[in-house]
Amino acid sequence: SAGKQVPVVAKIEKHEAIEQMEAIISLCDGVMVARGDLGVELPAEDVPILQKRLIASANRRGIPVITATQMLDSMVHSPRPTRAEVSDVANAILDGTDAVMLSNETAVGKYPVEAVKTMGTVAVRIEQEQIIGNARDTSRSIPNAISQAVGHIAEQLDAAAIMTLTKTGATARNVSKFRPQTPILAVTPHVDVARQLQLVWGVRPLLVLDLPSTGQTFQAAMSVAQEKQLLTERDLVVMTAGTIQGVAGSTDLIKVEVVKAVLGQGVGIGQGSVSGVARVAGTDGDLPNFNHGEILVAPSTNAKFVEVIRKAAGIITEEDSITSHAAVIGLRLGVPVIVGVKNATQLIRDGAILTLDTQRGLVYSGTLGASPSDGLLMT
Known about the structure:
CATH superfamily of the largest domain: Pyruvate kinase, C-terminal domain
CATH architecture of the largest domain: 3-Layer(aba) Sandwich
Oligomer: single chain
Strand content: 15-25%
């Protein structure tokens, strides 16, 4: 029905809401701590305690919490905040808030840009201290155990990122609630989910098409992350996802992988990805020791290559044409082909292990992850 997928953020500003805090938080998708209104409804000295309770409760449930109102109120009229305001912002972050929100500072203030810049600077500096340790969900469940373990593994291995596959955002939020010090890359095919995850602590959403297998999706996501300079070659990535179809937050699997180098890009023809040993050839098609399952790398192919192509797991050519001999014969024989890879015979060493991703037209150094990952599902 209309509006079914619209998230609800509960603004807590009444005494009655405090009394029903746990019930409200269990039903909503996010919480806003409206301190200005709470200070009117309740004694001012109670507001800091209630702020901590609300943040802790939202953290335990893994939903984003926003701390708002009078964060940098003096910057409505002044270009600099007071030291007390800086401490206020810092303490909200140390309490575990996912976001801090400005109101009058940017709505009617004289220094809106400076206020935003100050808020960002304080947030970045405080999070560098790695002393965020608010109460987390201690209930015993597979998703909780896996999500917490992901953070520990990433820290011990000094991983560059944690990568989650998620269609609803649940997996990314579950990992985030344990506040790992490693950046979380949330891979999703849905624009609305990516936008919602912008609010979640430590999460950087990546829009990636939902490919046939999860191994392909992970590889595509790492390519996107490399393009955005979030990952580089040989970075270690800890991956997590769920294997129970249709159940949000069913996080139950961990995988560790190294980012592979992209050796070249062309136009992919055929389906799926394939890995194998590279055999670099000239234009005469003379490869007497070519074995089944190897990958042919050549400037171009012709009729002399047919017997070799029959044994090949994949073909890479420098010739840039989707109607070339390699493209046509590969399509006919069901052999994945990537054409138009510039200087392929110079860049690729004979005997090297390669992976062809025909979906994206990319040639990687190394092999894809283990086949069990193909059973993973986004949750």
